[in-house]
Design brief:
Layout: E1 3-11, E2 14-22, E3 25-31, H1 37-45, E4 52-57, E5 60-64, E6 69-70, E7 78-81, H2 93-99, H3 113-120, H4 135-147, E8 153-157, H5 165-181, E9 185-190, H6 193-199, E10 202-207, E11 210-215, H7 217-220, E12 235-245, E13 250-255, E14 258-263, E15 272-278, E16 282-285, E17 296-307, E18 312-319, E19 322-329, H8 330-335, E20 343-348, E21 358-360
Helix pairs in contact: 2-4, 4-5
């Protein structure tokens, strides 16, 4: 299943003109505040009636202004996950999960409730009411309620924004399973580069109501012009596998034959992962460094150098493990004579790889 979105709409302060395709998996809408992310989600959900456009999931048309076709929100077969769980406080978890199923068409493809409950790890919560759930537990129940409504499309509008870092770390693996085990497209809004790197099958980068760039997370996050927080969100995304766990508390990863080390992670040997390495955590040397405490030193070749308006530059380095990005000063670029084709070494501190930047590899759509 795939989602096609074409929307034109004028609002005070923004002129929305959007066209993109979202395949099965998680398509992330990524951009600064005011770029149009929530407006797009509201239009897809039927909470906003655009002046022109068409939105469809395969041959299921939600609206088409040229044809005069408009499905009201309650007939759009959507699962909506909000920033807060928005569970019914007077119902138990079991009853909240069942609520969506009451409105699903009889001929709709239905998710197995036992599978959804197992996937989300909420079996022990079924008889509780929302007041007795943590923020992370509420969001897991909200995901389950959306799934059990037999949706043709799932919308998630910054579903982790109201959670602290510990609860975000709890929920992210469930969204990864949702991405890999559910056949419907998921449209996901976030400001977080870490969430994009871990979850995105594809990314639609937005700016001032327009699509600035669309593509894999590894390409979009490498472009400082599309990151909501600028150069601080720029980073490389590598596909790796867990090679070993060592007694000193480190996990060894394999990336195309290259060994990388990071603090121990809760994944089994052989698991395939994606890791995000922020550009600001990479330093460069024009020769093999010696006498360093850093364990991750990768030999590579400069692919490109992009200088910013200030004193900084982003250097792209091709290594056997994949392409890395380094945020350095323009003075360093000149001192090291960094230019395309020049050999160099990239150094990544082991402790620079944060747990939120490590997640399951995206399944191919």
């Amino acid at each position: 299943m795939s989602l096609s979105v074409q929307i034109r709409h004028r609002l005070p302060g923004i002129d929305l003109d959007i066209l993109f395709q979202a395949p099965r998996g998680v398509t992330v809408l990524f951009g600064r505040s005011g770029s149009g992310k929530t407006t797009i989600v509201d239009a897809v959900a039927g909470l906003l009636r655009p002046q022109a456009g068409r939105v469809a999931v395969d041959d299921w048309v939600l609206f088409d202004t040229e044809q005069g076709h408009w499905l009201p929100p309650h007939r759009r077969r959507l699962g909506y996950i909000f920033q807060e769980g928005r569970l019914f406080p007077h119902l138990t978890v079991r009853q909240n999960l069942s609520y969506g199923r009451w409105f699903a068409p009889r001929d709709a493809r239905r998710e197995n409730p036992d599978h959804v409950i197992e996937m989300l790890g909420i079996g022990h919560l079924l008889d509780r009411r929302p007041a007795h759930l943590s923020g992370g537990e509420k969001q897991r129940v909200a995901i389950g309620r959306a799934l059990l409504a037999s949706p043709r499309l799932i919308l998630a509008d910054e579903p982790l924004a109201a959670l602290d870092e510990a609860r975000k770390a709890e929920i992210l693996p469930y969204f990864e399973r949702l991405r890999d085990e559910v056949s419907v497209p998921i449209l996901y809004v976030t400001h977080s580069a870490a969430e994009v790197a871990r979850l995105a099958t594809s990314v639609v980068a937005l700016q001032d109501g327009k699509v600035l760039r669309q593509g894999p997370a590894s390409e979009v996050l490498a472009d400082p012009s599309v990151a909501p927080t600028g150069v601080r969100a720029v980073g490389a995304v590598l596909e790796v596998s867990v090679a070993a766990h060592h007694e000193d508390g480190l996990t060894e990863l394999a990336a195309n034959g290259v060994r990388l080390f990071l603090p121990r992670i809760p994944h089994s040997v052989g698991d395939a992962l994606r890791i995000r390495i922020p550009a600001q955590e990479v330093i460069l040397s024009d020769r093999k460094p010696e006498g360093l405490s850093a364990l991750n030193v990768l030999q590579g070749t400069v692919e490109s150098v992009r200088a910013g308006e200030g004193p900084g530059a982003i250097v792209s380095v091709r290594t056997p493990a994949g392409t890395l990005l380094a945020r350095v000063t323009r003075r360093s670029v000149e001192a090291l004579a960094l230019q395309p084709g020049k050999p160099c070494h990239a150094v990544v501190k082991t402790v620079a790889l944060a747990p939120q930047d490590v997640g399951g590899r995206v399944a191919k759509s």
